[in-house]
Design brief:
single chain; alpha/beta; 9-stranded mixed beta sheet; 9 strands; about 40% helix; globular
């Protein structure tokens, strides 16, 4: 398959994220910015939900909540190509592994509270999946996205008896923020906040319910990449300035300069999408330097192809291979090599992350 015809995760699946995972990340309306651009970025969330649905219906992932957040007409959901489904699966498995370890009671003890902040959360179902676990950890979970996206999620959960068992009686705090407390004591705060405005304020109350005295994990799955590089840097700084024990996980594309990377950028441009951080953090080492420069003492990174090889067990690889089969092995390696998971942390509360 020639480079010009190789599919890529962004052009064919939007920013397929999972429940995580999974790529989204959006920013809200902003004075002086074309509303059309924000609408295009916002629309990637629908692509992401459909990609996750494809992976779930084919057996790659388990997610009993994804159907509630997929907007579609009559007929079946579009089935993604095997190479895309594997990308969705691997990216989700990587973030699940990092987040599960962060929440592990073996690491932090049964009583220590945790906090997760998901930037550009959109229709992501990770919060629901964590809250519905047997004997789940007690956490404060924040999602930040467009006000319209947050409102839509509020309406979906409020109208669903199934979802209401996990997040009962969500309460709107104001026009753009709502909160729900699970039966086990965890909380979800959903904030309709423009990340660009967040980076410009010193007012911590803009994120109601935010705790600065517990170990916290900041998650960006193809979110900060849509901001100008300086804006993305300021968003991270907003949290590093306030939370001493802070970790971060970033999932973004890399390597825009080789033939596949140039095609990837061209495909994005054709959809009206530009990722400024891709222009600056071009290689894996750039993502490492980015996190070190942001104040994280410990930094790691792995491309998605390496994650597939090293983090997925042989038995699980066999199971996934048997779902559809994948003839384009070299194309998979090329595709997955252009996406990276980078993570870092400062302070305490991150246990075995040190060993990876």
């Amino acid at each position: 398959m020639s480079a010009a015809s190789i599919p890529n995760l962004l052009s064919l699946r939007g920013n397929s994220r999972g429940g995580r995972g999974r790529g989204r990340g959006r920013v809200g309306q902003h004075p002086g910015r074309p509303s059309g651009h924000d609408a295009v970025i916002q629309g990637t969330d629908d692509d992401a939900a459909l990609s996750r649905l494809s992976a779930v219906e084919l057996g790659y992932l388990e997610d009993p909540f994804v159907h509630s957040f997929v907007r579609r007409g009559s007929g079946t959901a579009p089935r993604r190509l095997p190479i895309i489904n594997r990308g969705t699966y691997t990216r989700t498995a990587a973030l699940d592994r990092l987040i599960d370890l962060f929440l592990s009671k073996d690491e932090v003890g049964p009583s220590q509270e945790r906090q997760i902040i998901s930037l550009g959360a959109g229709t992501d179902t990770r919060c629901l999946r964590i809250f519905s676990q047997e004997n789940p950890p007690i956490i404060t979970y924040h999602e930040v996205d467009f006000p319209a996206i947050c409102k839509q999620k509020f309406n979906t959960i409020s109208a669903s008896p199934k979802l209401g068992q996990i997040l009962p009686k969500p309460v709107e705090q104001n026009g753009s923020t709502w909160c729900s407390q699970s039966p086990t004591g965890s909380q979800l705060w959903c904030h309709g906040v423009d990340l660009r405005e967040l980076a410009q304020t010193e007012d911590t109350s803009i994120l109601k319910g935010l705790k600065t005295d517990v170990p916290t994990l900041l998650v960006s799955e193809c979110c900060l990449c849509y901001l100008q590089t300086s804006e993305a840097r300021d968003v991270i700084k907003w949290f590093t300035d306030r939370i001493p024990d802070l970790g971060i996980v970033i999932y973004e594309p890399i390597k825009p300069d080789d033939p596949f990377g140039r095609m990837m950028v061209s495909n994005l441009s054709a959809r009206g999408i530009r990722m400024p951080t891709l222009e600056e953090y071009r290689e894996p080492r750039d993502q490492e330097n980015r996190l070190r420069g942001a104040g994280f003492d410990h930094v790691r990174q792995m491309a998605v192809d390496e994650i597939w090889e090293k983090w997925i067990s042989e038995s699980e690889k066999e199971r996934v291979d048997n779902l559809e089969g994948l003839d384009e092995v070299e194309e998979w390696k090329l595709l997955a090599g252009h996406y990276i998971v980078a993570w870092g942390w400062k302070g305490s509360g991150f246990g075995s992350w040190l060993q990876w």
